């Protein structure tokens, strides 16, 4: 029985309130709610009519998954996150019901920032929906899980191959001979350069062709099965897919039509490592790390500003101090001293360039201390934000798993 004007709170020891949302039990500290008295849960008078005196709990016949996001609002100091698997319009209605004073358009969406909102539209065609779920939802079936594992294997093997290509001992003997000849002889023989290029291409071409054939097929199927083609390239992993494939084919064209453009080829090979971003689809930790960096761009900007100021001031001071007291100074100019200042404030200290005077060493010590303080302060906030997002993700997943288990249990009992 729901009591109007009940005096007893639904507390389960201490100041924890018990909240029943359509059968799902949630608990939250009352001290978290009092900071938001304008909301339904934060105001004792507003929430009183939903109190069940017999069960000693507050009962709401509302959307259970959406309430996870509502609960996060109180647990994270008024920061709203859209839960996964909840349509946007449904969650907006829940936000209005619980009287959260937020602008719905500014809410963060933990999954859609990186992977999009799959709940807003689904393919109507049966085969298209089957392919879409197979590639976009690794946990939807055993086949989808196996496909996700296969994709990760191709990504990791491809990255490993890019690294192994640079190992001299893994190159064919004739390529090594050609390279050694070119290294120790001033004359250049076009036939040796061409032969070495072809051999090197033949040695790794089959390996690259297999990996990138899979990447091409995967990207084509994802695009074909996507319910919203216009939104496809707005998502980071999809952009990484397309960029990876484009770079490979550009590199292939350059090698075939312009063999002497080795600098351009190496530049393309360097950019090709962005395919590591393809792992964002499968790694929750990587997604959270990217979100943490994006949300901390303001702090990162302040860090760069402070560090740049210290670099300029420290470089100028050390240059003039060393120039006045030591004619054989390692520092030839202020820009030349930037390198020393950067590795000093980062507390790396390679030692390739060091001040030799007492005042120069004092300036170096000051730069090191200021650099430590400048870098440490934003890192604390970055670490706290990362931990908060990890906890949020874990909490959402645990509630999602519990709700799925309850649904399966109810289905088995019917």
TrEMBL record:
The keyword RNA-binding does not apply. GO terms for cellular component: voltage-gated potassium channel complex. GO terms for molecular function: delayed rectifier potassium channel activity. It is a multi-pass membrane protein. Residues 18-106 form the Potassium channel tetramerisation-type BTB domain. Gene3D superfamilies: 1.10.287.70, Potassium Channel Kv1.1, Chain A, Voltage-gated potassium channels. Chain C. Pfam families: BTB_2 (PF02214), Ion_trans (PF00520). Residues 199-379 form the Ion transport domain. GO terms for biological process: action potential; protein homooligomerization. Signal peptide: none annotated. It is found in: Membrane. This is Potassium voltage-gated channel sub A member 2. It comes from Desmophyllum pertusum.
